[in-house]
Amino acid sequence: MSGAETGRQAAPAAARPAPDGASAGHEVLAVVFQIRGDRLCVLLWRRARPPYEEHWALPGGRLGGAEGLDGSIRRQLAQKVDVRDLAHLEQLETRGDPCRHPRGRILATAYLGLVPAGIDPVVPEDTGWHPAVDLPDMGFDHADIVHSGRRRLRAKLSYTNIGFALAPPEFTVSQLSRYYSAALGHDVAATNLRRVLLRRGQIEETGGSVASGRSGGRPAALFRFRTRRLEITDAFAVLRPPAGS
Amino acid sequence: MSGAETGRQAAPAAARPAPDGASAGHEVLAVVFQIRGDRLCVLLWRRARPPYEEHWALPGGRLGGAEGLDGSIRRQLAQKVDVRDLAHLEQLETRGDPCRHPRGRILATAYLGLVPAGIDPVVPEDTGWHPAVDLPDMGFDHADIVHSGRRRLRAKLSYTNIGFALAPPEFTVSQLSRYYSAALGHDVAATNLRRVLLRRGQIEETGGSVASGRSGGRPAALFRFRTRRLEITDAFAVLRPPAGS
DNA sequence: GCAAAAGTGTTGGTGGTACACCCATGG
DNA sequence: CCATGGGTGTACCACCAACACTTTTGC
């Protein structure tokens, strides 16, 4: 391996970086979110040794020699924190600041992963869920990466059906509105959320319903997402192609 | 400047760090777009040797040991293709398929760069602009990456002010509508584009105007973008916070 | 005056929030 | 029958596409 096709270079002197100290290492990280108790939480583990001893960090690790980036983060989440129930996974960004890791030059490609509400994966002792709005002390640039993940999730909730990855297979509209509230960080009225998602064809009634609680109230209808694959449901409001095309 | 690619020399043991055989190399690429002659074009260079001899490729190259990703692609564009007038640059995606490069495992982080219309950077002999809708034979996964870039640009034209990076400092609305048409791939009516961008506060009149051509017509007013930094001008139509907050 | 290109006014549709109101259930 | 929560109907508004119309120029 390690062919090293150097691309082209103009100014020999400058272009010839250090004896190719180039990428000495590459790691893959994941921002894994789940709604727990009406709050958006992220999965973190606590570092037991330096650097950043006692700080919290994103799950992930070194990229293996023969695996792709997606495969690598899936493997590491399964092996290290026993998370196998990702309903959605997408690449977030790659950080390459030479100083981001005190041990030397390590690039990191971060992913956004979503676990549906309601399930409770068994995670190791040193691993836990933390509210995304109230992060503990975190090492490296990981807190920044969590914020990127939140922004991405917020945006996609608005124009895709990504809600399927936050909600369990069946849910009532009022439950769903709580998931949206938690992820978006502001109130979402159930009454309108129902109409928006129905109009867009994102959700449909299952036919079932849920008995009312002891305090009464009309039984709630159950819904499900029509598909569990990411789709863009709201092409941008503006600048779409003219009708006749 | 910068002629052909100078010898590739297999990176010595230096590139051999990762204990687990992890990342042997990392390159940085750029999809640089410019509107030329009412078409969206991308900057490519023609490979003189294998792999993919005679095919076209995205500009870029190995990441230097002491530079960040952004810095690296800026440096390489400046040195290798003499492009220094990027009005916008953002990270696109990172590809890590172990087989994407026949010479071995090389990760690639791709950027999207935009050069305003009207300027004509001097580029090397083997480098040229190609219509993005009619790409020549391209090596590696570079054609895919160009498509990612187009999708990203199209989306951002709809909800940000990224048009500032396609247009020259001053322009008429009808010119601007041609830039938008080229980048979006469909007609954009000048009459409505003007209103949309004015309402959103993206553009403003400079006061100047352009004399009409020999065929007559009312002189066109000149406009400029109010800012040349990326801003989201159209928060998603849906699911915004309630009014009272 | 006539053609050409820029710019304005207006209409109609879509898709959203807000809020009043009706429905089904438990006590 | 009342409180509680689910569900529907409707008013209103922002935003945009389409198109007719007006303005300003060259010839």
Quick tags:
homodimer; 245 residues; alpha+beta; Arc Repressor Mutant, subunit A; two-stranded antiparallel ribbon; 5 helices; 24% strand; elongated; disordered N terminus; DNA-binding
Describe this structure in words.
The structure is a homodimer of 245-residue chains. With 245 residues, chain A is α+β, with helices and mostly antiparallel strands. Chain A folds into two domains: 134 residues, Alpha-Beta Complex (Nucleoside Triphosphate Pyrophosphohydrolase), CATH 3.90.79; 66 residues, Orthogonal Bundle (Arc Repressor Mutant, subunit A). Helix content of chain A is 23%, strand content 24%. Chain A contains five helices and nine strands. In chain A, strands 1, 2, 3, 4, 5, 6 and 7 form a seven-stranded mixed beta sheet that branches. A two-stranded antiparallel sheet of chain A has the order 8-9. In chain A, strand 1 and strand 2 form a beta hairpin. Chain A is elongated and about 60 Å long. The N and C termini of chain A lie far apart (49 Å). The N terminus of chain A is likely disordered. At the A-B interface, helix 1, helix 2, strand 5 and helix 3 of A face strand 4, helix 1, strand 5 and helix 2 of B. Chain A binds a DNA duplex (27 and 27 nucleotides) through helix 5. Chains A, B: This is ADP-ribose pyrophosphatase YjhB (NUDIX family). Chains A, B: Pfam families: NUDIX, WHD_NrtR. Chains A, B: InterPro entries: NUDIX_hydrolase-like_dom_sf, NUDIX_hydrolase_dom, WH-like_DNA-bd_sf, WH_DNA-bd_sf, WHD_NrtR.
